[in-house]
Design goal:
OB fold (Dihydrolipoamide Acetyltransferase, E2P), five-stranded mixed beta barrel, 3 helices, 7 strands
Amino acid sequence: MKARNKRIVFVILGLIAVGAAGGLITSALQKYTTYYYTPTKVVNKEAPVDSLFKLGGMVRKGSLLREEGKLEVEFVLTDYKNDVKVRYNGILPDLFKEKQAAVTKGHLGTDGIFVAEEVLAKHDESYMPPEVAESLKKEAKDVKNETGSAADSTTTSNPSTSSTGAAKE
């Protein structure tokens, strides 16, 4: 075999190896990737039924139900447009409570109830998970556009304060 042909074979084998490695990496990433959905997207059947995904929103006031002596908990996550009932069997984070932001990871059951494997709660009073904040703002804009109302449900920010509430210098 000529030297030129050996180089061509070597390059082709190298490209095949790089392609195979890329395919394996992509496959592994897809297996462990979970997408975020709002309650509205779940109600509109945009969320996958057969795989894990994250569901985020605000815990509706009065929706937290727990039987005495049991770990199973049910609550409702809302984006103020639609609600999704969530069932979780485990210990909730200490900061989990009603009227607070939460992100859950799990799958949608055949009965339409989201079965959570993991529940995350916000970690201080001024924090809201970015996905939840963004989806709530988007839903508020959608509601505003649908009703034609000039009132905005989100608060306006003061340009003299930063996101932490401290005055800029």
